[in-house]
Amino acid sequence: MLRSRTSKTSTTENETPREVVLSEDEWRRRLTREQYRVLRKAGTERAFTGEYVDCHLDGTYHCAACGAELFSSDAKFDSGSGWPSFTEPAVASAVELHRDRSLGTERTEVLCRACGSHLGHVFDDGPLPTGQRYCINSCSLSIEAAQR
Ligand SMILES: [Zn+2]
After folding, report:
1. Is 112 one of the annotated active-site residues of the chain?
2. What pLDDT, on a 0 to 100 scale, did the predictor assign at position 9?
3. Considering only CA atoms, which of 31, 52, 35 is closest in space to residue 44?
4. Tally of domains within the chain
């Protein structure tokens, strides 16, 4: 596991203990500039630009920051939104939901529970049976294709 301790650990936001704790410098080294902006600064990639928007491979999507298993390709659907969309996480406990009022409207932010990185948002206009649409940035994900 990746673990590191630095003297500058932020204590403001996290009620959940993270399995993966890195300093901002370490995140910056591990991630591309775009990934850092999205995962660590709650940014959003431009619609229809991500590599997984039209991906139809069978497999498991992992957190691009820490490798935690997040979504199965079975739950992926074409939402037309321009971002990879899922009806549910692979394991409910893999993600953490936070209320986000940053754009004046209330949205629900989706974080990776293991490392606290920003993944995207979840909306309740998805297809049945869950009715949920996890709208996730491609660059927050890394697919592990299923073996055939
Ligand atoms: Zn993670």
Report:
1. no
2. 43
3. 35
4. 1
